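Running log. JK asked me to keep both predictions on one page so they can be read side by side. First protein, sequence followed by its tokens:
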Amino acid sequence: MRIVLKYGGSSVATLEKIEKIANYIKSLKEKIEEIVVVVSAMGKTTDELLKKAQYFTSTPNKREIDMLITTGEQQSIALLSLALNSIGCEAISYTGYQIGLKTVGEYGDSEIVGVDTEFLEKKLKENKVIIVAGFQGINEIGDITTLGRGGSDTTAVALAGMLRCECKIYTDVDGVYTDDPKKNILATKISKISYDDMENMSRNGAKIMETKAVMMGKKYRVPIFVGKSLGSENGTYILD
């Protein structure tokens, strides 16, 4: 059995949170043999990197911005790998480039067109947890590119599709609601929702899942679970 897990920036915002996730993954490894984990940059790291670029120019070069902000995810994957290995759970981290995640399109808003699944399949057989930097890939001329808002979700769903397994998106909310529960006390959690309905919600402003990630899930028929990090499994499934 295999699974792809994805942890957003708020889920890995501190070293303590990364440590808790590592402990959870170690316990999960006893039940699920092959685990791929996709992570975002820690907390507000991407915003902080963008502010640094703005120090020099208000119109930074998009190629260089992609080169800069992808370092946030590299930090997260290395730290999670270190945390797992320190508790006796073998893990190894990879950038988008290293797993052959190919992209096309503009810097800052690229599309995934392929992944080196042969490489991933080989690494999964080595019994290590594979940790992948979300949000990034490499284009046809060898430049690092980013996938736009919610790009780590798209990375995770794409990998699950190509590896033919379920994808669990862990974030700071416990599922998909009929409305924003912070603004509407009558909003109720949805236990199951179709790809099409989730895509419509995303296009209409729901921030829980990016449209590109939902469309990727629909393309590969990936069962997508959305739930709270280290919370119960009482979240939302996005299915046919």
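And the second, directly underneath as requested:
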Amino acid sequence: MRLRSPAEVVEYLGASGKTGIVDGTEVRVRRPVAGRKDRGRFISGKNKQNAVKSMVVTDGEGRVLWCSTTEPGSCADITHGRQSGLVKLLADGPAVEVLVDADYQGLGAQSGGRVVTPPHRKFKKDAPDRYEEMYGRWHTAHSSRRIRVEHGIVHLKNWRALARHLGRREHMSDTVQAVAGLLSHQQTADLIPAQQK
């Protein structure tokens, strides 16, 4: 499966009827030199370290379908999803289901209900006991379906080049996409029975 763009991902998911799962991942990079303009852009708000961020799309089995170009670590996941064009393609494309985490809250309305986020908590405090139980079940059900993307990201990070990148940040997008292509090829080859090889 050589999906090279968000448009090909949406088309593949629509044709196959599979569910897509999206999540962002960060790769640590070297800190920009002192005095460099926009030095703080690479500091991740989540991990408080210098990083670049990429968006990974897998299918329901955790096979990597596509990996986006990298953005500085300070870029929010929801912003990355909008900038990649994935949200617009989902809104205008075939009826597919894409599971995301709470970082993408609000994209469901923008994509015509195709992006499914975890349930929003209605009560911040003093919630009825019955509501807490229902919310826990909803959240667990969503998480158990979405966990496959984490498995796909782990397979990506098993490649030493993505465990921590010590090269130039300008080449990081090419490195991420090359590793994603190799991993996708490897995962697809593993599906072919030994008799057909």
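Observation for JK regarding the second prediction: The two ends are 17 Å apart (CA to CA).
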